[in-house]
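Page 42, continued from yesterday. The earlier attempt failed because a stray header line got pasted into the input along with the sequence. Redoing it now with the clean sequence only.
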Amino acid sequence: MKKRTRIAAFTAALLATGSLVLPASAGSISYPNFSSTAGLTLVGQASTPTTSDGTVLRVSPGVSGYTSGAAYSDTPITLGSNDIFSTTFQFRFTSPGGIDPADGITFVLAQNPTGLGGAGVGMGYSGVPNSVAIEFDTYNNAGFGLGDNDGNSSNHVSIDTGGQLSNLDLTNVYGNGSCGFPTGSPAQNNNDVFGCMSNGDVWTVNLGYDGTDLNVFVQDGSGAVDHVIDNYAIDIASALGTNDAFVGFTSGTGSGWENHDILNWAFADTTQLTNPTTGVPEPFTLALFGVGLAGAAAMRRRKKAQKV
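This time it went through. Structure tokens are written below.
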């Protein structure tokens, strides 16, 4: 089935059912919260503190000094037909300090369940081989050897491969590439405003891969959905060197910091529709996926990059 036909059928199913929820299969992950970490491998400084949001996955803590952490499924996910998968999670970044809120998280697929890269700018990802990551970056890294590849942006989503901070298809979230401290380094627009990932709001991420193209949607609270990665062509299996992948998150802090908390997470290696399951996050909800596609042209504010 061609890509456009698959997406059209997927959208039609969403319109008919109102939601896409994870199937009960060996290739699914469901964490309504992180009161139990059974099935996860925590690496580095990742932990599960209890906060006002409940028990969260704190991938790296907002403390002075360089920190890094990661969390992976402790068994590999075998990707479905044509490597299809979907995932959703919510995050909240709090207690920013130091020179600026920093540095962000990645959602990662990797060959190894213990891969942990560099702290700070590396977001716990830089140096993890045989991997693909979608980064949610809250720090301007232009002064750290990334130059234009970083887009001179402190509020972006982009794609990394092979443990390299390649920043493919970099997009400023809600069109705002400056979020930090007005007195920071460099001076930024205030990170407290709507659309800044470091503003302390609950953010929702919906991500889907149809075997050919990757799509990522983000939403700040109950605000408009931003379609930040729009049909980016990438062969994930080739980048991984396998059809089996450990999936999870990485994060890091440096001279700037913040708590990087994942509140809930669900993952499926299929786009199969099932009945809603109480307490499980819903990947590609009608509000996020359907409205995101309809408003993609209006919401798109991207810097085109060469595709892999």
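Notes: Helices lie at 3-17, 236-240, 286-294, 296-299.
Reminder to self: strip header lines before submitting.
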